[in-house]
Design brief:
It is built from eleven helices and no strands. By secondary structure, it is mostly helical. It comes from Streptomyces lydicus.
Length: 222
Amino acid sequence: MSGGRDEASPGPGTPPAPGTPPAPARRRGRPARAAAEAGPGARERILAAARTEFAARGYDKTSVRGIAKAAGVDAALVHHYFGTKEQVFAAAIELTFAPALTMPDALAGGGADVGERMARFMFGVWENPVSRQPLLAIMRSALTNDTAAAVLRGLIERRMLQRVAGELDVPDPEFRVQLAAGHLIGIAMLRYVIKMDPVASADPEEIIAMVAPTLQRYLTQP
């Protein structure tokens, strides 16, 4: 014996005797469930769940925990990808607003028919049931919650109205574009939210024909 060590005991680094079962490996990193949650597609699942939750419950009644549960992930993962509830909402509505956010491209170059193109583009988005229902849910949230309204306002200003205004050759272009947008939003409220006749039941082409000259004046006349 030497130094108090049993000579029959293997020292550090000594391979185990033949037939000795291997020691269990130490588990490191995320648990298996968490790793699966954070795997490919986790962010997309969270975003899809957020859109559904906000549409069904509104901004006030939707929680990060509820979104996480609907997506099948831990709430910490929602915060990891998106941050706060406000930031999750912003990401969700940007995806929902994707069809409308292409409006500046449709109006590029202005022209004698820009008012009609603007009206036709917006009614094309609103008349499509696939895009209309999520938009209605977002508008209802914005009407009842200041935070949701601020997020929506920022998105519309940054991604739509400022880009359209940059294409116009008129005084106060941002003011003009807001007037045009307000005109269309007011009609959308009457037609799709309040559902007030005769606007609610009118043919879209009839509305476009009536509205287009006013939008044209906003967007082109000095």
